[in-house]
Amino acid sequence: MLHLKGIGASAGIAVAKAYRLEEPVLTVDKKAIENTASEVTRFDEAIIKSKNELEKIKEHAMRELGKDKADIFAAHLLVMSDPELLNPVKDKIQNEKVNAEFALKETADMFVSMFESMDNEYMKERAADIRDVTKRVVAHLLGVEIPNPSMISEEVIIIAEDLTPSDTAQLNRQFVKGFTTNIGGRTSHSAIMARSMEIPAVVGTKEATSQIKNGTLVIVDGLDGEVIIDPSDEMLAAYVSKKEKYDLQKAEWAKLVNEPTVTKDNQHVELAANIGTPKDVKGVLENGGEAVGLYRTEFLYMGRDQLPTEDEQFEAYKSVLENMKGKPVVVRTLDIGGDKELPYLHLPKEMNPFLGFRAIRLCLEEQDIFRTQLRALLRASIYGNLRIMFPMIATVDEFRQAKTILLEEKQMLEAKNIEISGNIEIGMMVEIPSTAVMADAFAKEVDFFSIGTNDLVQYTMAADRMNERVSYLYQPYNPAILRLVTLVIEAAHKEGKWVGMCGEMAGDPIAIPLLLGLGLDEFSMSATSILPARSQIKNLSKEEAASFKEKVIGMSTTEEVVSFVKETFNV
User: What is the pTM of this model?
Assistant: First the structure.
């Protein structure tokens, strides 16, 4: 039995066998072959295995992810049947008397190089197909397994160095009971996705992949940030008991699912949820969400090989708006960059992508992408209560430019007699310190603010939230952050505008009394945090919390703030 300590990124306890999700090492050496006929047969068998595997993946993708994802694997199957690729490999085996994996890699590399050098997007995509197919066939020839999370068909706990947002988005909740990673923090995208998917997760263990073997029984304790490998019977029983107690607590919270979020002194605040896909709406409603405070639309663009069409986006937005049944839905326009890349856009690598060409900066330059998304949103607006917000706004001019483009698209659609809602609120994210400082100027332009604390904290403290060596500086309760939040809320309220928060701080039990006292109107968090937050807010007095405002923002350190909240509010 072995314990690993990490960061509890998503609450809950899971017990299941380990499933290591890692890129295989495919080292291909050149070997001389005497029996070339046998080697050609070995190559043919690897092709058949790969085809069978891809057929299953394609069927699963069609069923779970839709036709566009399934088409990727259909293209791979075509490549795998192409005599233009297969015959040269067999010729090489027979004429040069070399092993199949070497012959395949040499032939495939030649085609990839040739296609990539062409000034033609279709041929470049074909190069990517050949590369992916080759990897699969080579893996079979070497006897190395390629993990595929979408094909998991038994209860497992994922073990990985890290999970990309698209990896996490494709996990099947029915079978993936939890995950643990070597790196990451509570605000990493894999952690955020885990909370939205309601699966327990522990990140930042440093040793998960080196200590946990495939098939080993693992306990993931997302409540206390612990991973237990190969637990004893006594330990297993203790965690089954702990899980039962947590489930009872969840049952008590569940009684609040249809209750409004009202403080002890009868003040209402809105509890909303952050989502990444239309499927997440089910969790929002089951957890009593009063709104969607952040729809991260970038997941529509990820895990695929081309931009989503206007109609694909329209259907996604329409689905969310309809299923929320008139409750507000705040949609953030495309926020790509930083740790979220779209390989098919072929954007240049940057020294510091978090401070680079991302989010609204990309959209204002790549206006075709931006306008397509805005048209889809506007067309969907009649199906619910839509609010649109722009991310990473640094200047008033950026907001004005983005709003102008939105209004231009609205005017063009109306000229075609396409019906659009007349009640769309237009707001912006506050995640750059200078924006918070200038909140009084922005408040005159916007309908609402949503404070993105995940980025606001890292930019204010000059500390990359993905870098474990400076993770001690990720301090959401630091008085500097609280002062910036205060500036934003006061500026908005002066103009009669509302303020939400969609960073992970909004669902944090330590932060909730502070934010209530600062006057925050809407708290948007992972769906699973809503009921615990509602339970906590029911026992707080907004007037009492507000009476400590000056004292708290006048403190000097994070430790002082945390200590004060714990003593005063019994957190």
Answer: 0.71
